[in-house]
Amino acid sequence: MKNRTLAIIKPDAVRAGHSGKILDRIIQENFTILGLKQTWMSLEKAQGFYEVHMGKPFFEELTIFMSSGPCILLALEKESAIDAWREVIGATDPQKADAGTIREEFANNMGENAVHGSDSVENGAKEIEFFFSNSE
Ligand code: CMP
User: Fold this and answer.
1) What is the percentage of the chain residues whose pLDDT exceeds 70?
2) DSSP per residue, 7-63
3) What tens digit of pLDDT does each residue of 35-88 get?
4) How many angstroms is it from 33 CA to the middle of ligand 1?
5) How far apart are CA 8 and CA 118, in angstroms?
6) CA 69 – CA 18 distance, rounded (Å)
7) Residue 128 Cα, ligand 1 centroid: separation in angstroms?
8) Is the pTM of this model over 0.70?
9) Which residues of 39-62 are buried (b: 16+ CB within 10 A; e: fewer)?
10) Pocket test for ligand 1, best of 92, 101, 119 (most atoms within 8 A of CB)
């Protein structure tokens, strides 16, 4: 069944000039791009997006990093998009990411890990709604 995931090309990957290669990979993997835009998140927006991690030791570092520069937001659709995108990006910790995954290729560390993917169908829908209006 088709479902949707939010994908983010995070500030580290945008800064390093990896956006084109990551977008190309998204197209090669046959995701349908329903929405795409660049944004520079405020700290408050990043705190809202990662609200579920509030109170965790990495929350401050994560939200400061996510608001440190432009990132690219994508709403992606595909058969089992949640699982498919998570497979393409690899493990959160790039040291544990499989060969050929985006994080294995482009991520610096657990915090600056190049890309984001939603972790469930429900969160995919919520996260897309957090950043995109229907007309986008
Ligand atoms: P992401 O998939 O965007 O979802 C939550 C983010 O929190 C995760 O990617 C990492 O960037 C970050 N994260 C998770 N665990 C840690 C950690 N132990 N230390 C630093 N950052 C983390």
Assistant:
1) 100
2) EEE-HHHHHTT-HHHHHHHHHHTT-EEEEEEEE---HHHHHHHTGGGTTSTTHHHHH
3) 999 999 999 999 999 999 999 999 999 999 999 999 999 999 999 999 999 999
4) 24
5) 9
6) 14
7) 19
8) yes
9) eebeeebbbebbeeeeeeeebeeb
10) 92
CA atoms within 13 A on the CB side of 109: 5
Atom of ligand 1 nearest to the CA of 10: 3
> Any bridge partners for residue 116, and if so which?
8
Residue nearest (by alpha carbon) to ligand 1 atom 2 = 116
The tally of CA atoms less than 13 A away on the side-chain side of residue 1 is 2
- pLDDT, tens only, 102-111: 999 999 999 9
Nearest-angstrom CA–CA distance, 48 and 43: 9
What residues are in contact with ligand 1 under a 6 Å CB criterion?
58, 62, 92, 110-111, 113, 116
The Å distance, Cα 63 to ligand 1 centre, comes to 10
72: three-class secondary structure by DSSP: strand
